[in-house]
Amino acid sequence: MLTMYSTPWCGYCHRLKSQLDRAGIAHEVIDIEQDPEAARYVMSVNGGNQTVPTVRILPVVGGDEIVLTNPSIIEVRAALAGT
């Protein structure tokens, strides 16, 4: 499962979302400005910063989650290939 933490005004987020859509990669987008718990999560994995897009990939079976900060679509695809 891929979750992208975002804000409505983030250009990098819009670009990555479009790339995920074009690639047919299923994802959920969470607006950290509307979800305080999501904002806390993003801060916890980004040294206290609300850096978006932050992508969280949960493994299908076992393993550790993967967190990517401001990744390219190439980095997302590579991470998904490793899950």
TrEMBL record:
InterPro entries: GlrX_actino, Glutaredoxin, Thioredoxin-like_sf, Thioredoxin_CS. PROSITE patterns: GLUTAREDOXIN_2, THIOREDOXIN_1. It comes from the Bacteria. Gene3D superfamilies: Glutaredoxin. SUPFAM superfamilies: Thioredoxin-like. Pfam families: Glutaredoxin. Residues 3-57 form the Glutaredoxin domain. This is Mycoredoxin. It comes from Pilimelia columellifera subsp. columellifera.
